[in-house]
Amino acid sequence: MSTSLSGKGLLLKADLIAAAFRDEVERSLAECSRSPKLVGILSTSSGPSRTYAEFTRKQCESLGFEFVLKETGAALMNGGLGEGEGVEEAIMEANEDDSVDGVMVYFPIFGPQQDHYLQQLVSPYKDVEGLHVKFHYNLYHNIRFISPSSLSAPTSSAAGLTGDEAENDIPPPGMVKSILPCTPLAIVKCLEYAGVYNKILPYGDRAYGKTVVVVNRSEVVGRPLAALLSNDGARVFSVDIDSIQEYTKRPSDPDSSRKYHPRHIVRPPPEAYNTLQACLAVADVVVAAVPNATYKIPTAWLKDGCVCVNVAAEKNFEKDVREKASLYIPAVGKVTILMLLRNLLRLQRYQNASPVSTTESPAQ
């Protein structure tokens, strides 16, 4: 963490945050009877996807995890195959391999609709990225703790414990933490480290009193992050290219006898907050995840003393962001990969705890 003498806000790099979770992962790994095995499936010629695959390999090998990169389709050099060719078969093969504890597919491949199908094809017992509908159902319904066997049950019949029902973040006997998407979870961990979460407040409501703006409502980062933060008590403005939505657990009627909803609701924002500039003016936290090198959030629009987090590979904030922000986190990638490895360790425990085969079809 560093700051200048000119009154600029703190620059908080992900290394400091990642270090604590690296220690946690190493301790958990030491307790395993065997090193968890992660299979990465690369089926595209995309340069960033291959870079991420190699980064994953280095992190796994440095910590003692087993990593196998399965290349198919356009990822094969001089193979003459198209984008995504063979990816479905590779996923099914990894699902059926009892030696594999986690499966990671490097997206995008075909586009949102077909990629969504591939995400559901990965067994929920091996989904290290938390993209399966069973995990999304839990995330959006604020279900934090589940029985491992519920991953084989129909989603609508899944039983679990919500954040507001739980006393703390320790699963009750017979239950485990539901898997969360890696990047949104990494952002939450960064905000916890930065002190945005108030540990004095009850578990499940520790972001109460904070207003957060999340720029970009993608299904991989933006929307699940808005849900996570609002389920933790924050008021979240989710800003996308064509709309603004408000995520909150608080009822809109101030005279309501209900203190808050058991999970977040989504509604149009009040008229006063129908522009990005208006939302930023009241935001305690701003998270930007726009995959566009030319997109920049004007520093002049930021609230004095806010916390800014850049998630995109490109910098979404102007160079002088620390003139307004009290704290700026320029990247979260190193924390994201450790969230992935934490998920991998948990999935290995889920498989060991559940008598149900991990190769069952997600539809069963």
Describe the structure.
It comes from Lentinula edodes. Residues 13-129 form the Tetrahydrofolate dehydrogenase/cyclohydrolase catalytic domain. InterPro entries: Aminoacid_DH-like_N_sf (IPR046346), NAD(P)-bd_dom_sf (IPR036291), THF_DH/CycHdrlase_cat_dom (IPR020630), THF_DH/CycHdrlase_NAD-bd_dom (IPR020631). Pfam families: THF_DHG_CYH (PF00763), THF_DHG_CYH_C (PF02882). The protein is an alpha/beta fold. It has two domains: 29-180 and 335-350, 3-Layer(aba) Sandwich (Rossmann fold); 182-251 and 262-334, Rossmann fold (3-Layer(aba) Sandwich). The protein is built from nine helices and 14 strands. The longest helix has 21 residues, at 333-353. The protein is globular and about 55 Å long.
Total of DSSP H or I helical runs spanning 4+ residues? 9
Integer tally of domains: 2
Percent strand: 15-25%
Beta strand count: 14
Strand order in space, largest sheet: 1-14-13-12-8-9-10-11
Mean pLDDT: 89
Oligomer: single chain
Low-confidence stretches: 356-364
Could you give a short account of the major beta sheet? 8 strands, mixed
Level-2 CATH architecture of the largest domain: 3-Layer(aba) Sandwich
